[in-house]
Amino acid sequence: MPNPELVKDPALLTDAVPEAGSSKLVVTFGRFIRHRVGMIALAVLILVILAAIIMPLLWPYGYSEITPDLSQSPSLEHPMGTDTLGRDLLALVLRGMQQSLLIAFSVTVIACVIGVVLGVVAGYFGSFVDATVMRAVDLVLTLPTLALAAFLGSLVAGGGVSWLGLAMVLGSLMWTSVARLVRGVVLSLRELPFVDAARVMGAGPVRIMFRHLVPNVSDHIVVAGTLMFGVAILAESSLSFLGFGVQPPDTSLGLLVANAQSAVLTRPWLFYFPGLLIITIVLSVNYVGEGLRDAFNPRSSPTNPLATPRRGRGGKQRADRRPVTGQRSVTDRKPSTNANAVDGSTVDTDPQAPAKALIKVTDLSVRFGSQAAVDSISLEIQPGEVVALVGESGSGKSLTGLSLVGLLPNNAVGSGSVVFNGDELSDLTFGQWRRYRGRRIAMILQDPSTTLNPVLTIGAQFEDSMRLSAPVSRTEARRRTIELMASVAIKDAPARLDQYPHQLSGGMRQRIAIALAMVHDPDLIIADEPTTALDVTVQAQVMATLAVARERTGAAMLFITHDLALVAGIADRVAVMYQGKIVEDQDVFSLFEAPRSDYTRKLLSLAPRIDGKAVERQ
Amino acid sequence: MSGQTHAEGAELLRVTDLVKHFRPPRGARRDGPSVVHALCSVSFSVGPAETLGIVGESGSGKTTLLRTILGLQKPSSGQVLFLGEDVAQRRGKRARALQREISVVFQDPYTSLDPRMTVADILAEPAQIHRLTAGSRTAVTLLDQVRLPAASLRKFPHEFSGGQRQRIAIARALALDPKLIVLDEPVSALDVSVQAEILALLNELQRERQVSYLFVAHDLAVVADISHRVGVMYGGQMVELGPTGQVITEARHPYTRELLAAVPVPDPQVERAKPRMLQRQWPTETDGLPPCPHGDVL
User: Fold this and answer.
1) A141 CB near a chain B CB, below 8 Å?
2) What is residue A407's DSSP assignment?
3) Homologous superfamily of A359-606
4) pTM of the model
5) What is the pLDDT of residue A14?
C-alpha cells in the first residue's frame, strides 16, 4: 500500500506548479498590450471606427447634400474639398467608411460562421463528410471571386445592391480559408484525449464540436477573422470600384475612389483621401491581426535559435541582491572570475577533490525573472565518473544539464561558472560552443521520437554528425555507423541505415540516439531522462545499453532522472536536487544505505517496487 | 480462467473472446501484414470494488482493449458484458445509463482536460450531458474527494501541475458515481513521487466508494501496487492472469519474468549484480503464443 499519509497531505511533496495566476485570456491580453505595433494599429482602427460612427452626427453637411461650392480643393470649410456636384467630400468619406466597415464586418461574420461550421464538421466527422466539404472548398476556390461577386451583384441589383446583399455574396465566397484552417486544427484536436473523455461521458457530436472543439480553435478564428476583415474591405472596394457594389447616391470608399479616377489629375483630393483611408484601415487591421497572432501563440514569432543564452553578472551575492530581470547578454565578461573560488556551502563535495575534475560547476544559477530555478549549485564530475542528478519536475535538474552545454531557453538568465577540462564554458559564443557540443560533450534527450530528424535516414544522420569533425567517405561513414550500432546492440544494423526514424520503435530510436552521442567519443555524456518515454522492459534494455556504451568509451556521464531507483545500477555518485538546490551529494552506496536528507529518504520510500506488500494484498 | 476470486453473479465487467483486427492503410500494407491483430481472443472479468491491473508494452493491445470496453471502438468479434448486458447491443436509454456507470482517466493530464474550460466547467460537464441536477455531486465535493482546495474551481487546467491535473481528471471520473473507472496509464506521465500520491488517492477512493478499477500500465511495479489481480498482455493476448501475488511469484510467461526483472531495485548492490540484458533474451517470434484463433478471418 502506498503511504496513506500522502493522501491526507499532498503538499508533503511539491509537485511543480506552473506559473500561477490568471486565465489564458488575461495572459493573452497582456501580451497583446505589450505588442507595440498591434496596439498602435488597434488605436488607429478604433479612431477610424469611432469617426465613422460619431462624426456624421456632428458634421454640418450630409453625404447627399449639395452645396454651392463645386469642385473645391480642401479648405477650412471643406477639409477634404468637394466633388463636382458640390458635395462635401468629408461627409461622403464618412458615409463611405460606414458602408465599407459595415459590409466588411458582415462579410467577416458570415464567412467565419460558414467557415467554422463547415470546417469543424469536416474535421470532426472526417471521411465522407470531410471529402464533400473539401471538394466544395476546392470548387469555390476555382471561382474567380470578384467576377462571380460582380455577376451575382448585378443579378440582385434591381435598383442597387443593399449592403446586406453584397455582404452575403462576398461572405459566401470567402469562407474557404476559415474552413480549411478550422478543419486542419480540428483534425489534430480530435485525436486528443479530452475529446475521447467527452465521448466516454456520453457527449454527442454537437456538444463536442461546439463546446470543446470550437473554443479551442477560437484563437485561430479571431486571427483569421481579423485578417479577413482587411480582405473584405478591399473586396468591397474593388467591387464598388467596378460598379457592382454599393450604388449611388449611396457611397463607399471603393465607389469614391472609382468616381475620382477620372479626375485624378485635376482634382486629386477626391482620389487621395478615400484611397489613403482604405490603405490605413487595411494596414491597421493586418497589424492588429499580427499582434493577436503573436499574443495567442508567442512561439509563432521567430526567435534566433543560435542566440547565445543570456548571462547574469557576477556570482551569488550580487545575483541574490538584485534580480537580473531583463538584463542584456553579457558576452564580454572576463572568463572565470569565480572559477577558482571554492564555494564553502557546497553540500558534501570535498573541497580538496582532485584538481583534474572533467567538469566543475561553481555557483550556477538559472533565473526566470526574479525566480531562481537553479539556485547557486556546485557540482563536479571526474573523468569517467557517472553522476546521477535526481529530482522531480521543476527541481531544476534539466536546466542544470542544459547549462552545461549553453542551451538555456531564451528567457532564462544563467550565472556562475562551468569549467570543462580547465576551460571556462559559460561565456562562449555560438561558434566557440561548437568545439564542445556534440564532440566533447554529447547529449541524449528524453524523447527519441523528436530528437532524430524525421526526414533523414538513420545513416544520413550519422554521416552528417561524422562530417562535423573531418571529411569522411560514404563507405567509411557506413562502416563506422554499423560498428556503432552494433555496440548499442542493434540487430541487423546494415538494414537500419536506410530506414527513417518513424520506422523504428521508441527503444530502437533511443539506442540510435545513444550511438549518435558516441560518434565523436565524447568526454562527457549528458543523458536527460533518456528512458522516461519508454516501456519498463525497454527501459531496462536501454539502461544496460547505455552503461555498456559508456564503459566502452570511458566517458563521464551526467544522468538526469526523476526516478531514484533507476540510478542504483548505473551511477557512481548521486546528487539529489530539490527546489533548485542540491540537497544531497554522495556516492551511490552510501546514499541508498544511509540517505542524509529527508527529501532523499522520502523519494526512496516512494519508489514503486515489487516486494512483500504486493504479494500480501489480495 | 485462473484467479477467479468472485462468484459469477457478482461480476461487474466480463470480456469474452474479444478480437479486434485492423487493416493497415494501403500504403503500409505493401511490406507489412494485410491484417494487424490488436486483440486475440482476450477474456477476463472485473468484480465489484476490485482492481484488475493490466500490464503490457506499447503495441501489446492494451489501449485497443480499453477503447473497445469504453465503446470508442467496435470489436471485430467477442463480447463486452457490463452487468450481464452486452455493451455493443445497448441503445438509447440503456446506452446512456452505461455512460454513467463507466468513466475513464487517461494517461496524459495535459491533454485529457479541455484547456479552455475552468475546473468548475470540467467537473460539471458529466452532469450536464446527462441532464442531471440532483444526485450529481457538486464540484466542491468532488474536489474535496481528490484533496484539492475549492479555490481551484475558477482556475484553468494549465494552472495546475501534472499531479493536480490528474486529480482533476479523477474527480471528473467520479462525478456520476460510476461503478467502474478505467484508468489508462494514469501515472506514467508523472514523477515517481507524484505517482505514489495518485496511487494512494485511488486506493483510498476505492475503499470509500467501492468503485472498481481497470488499471492499465506498462510498469508491473505500479500495477502490482494497486491491483488485486493482474493480467499480462503480450502480442494482443492475455498471457497471464491471476491474483497479484501469484503472478509475481509464479510468473510463467517469459514476458512477465522480463517485466519483473525490469523493475529497478533501489539498491546498488542488487542492481549491479543483475545480468545486463541489452536485448529481449527470449525468442519473440513464436514465444509460446498460440496462433491467433481468428487469424484468417479477413
Assistant:
1) no
2) -
3) P-loop containing nucleotide triphosphate hydrolases (3.40.50.300)
4) 0.80
5) 42
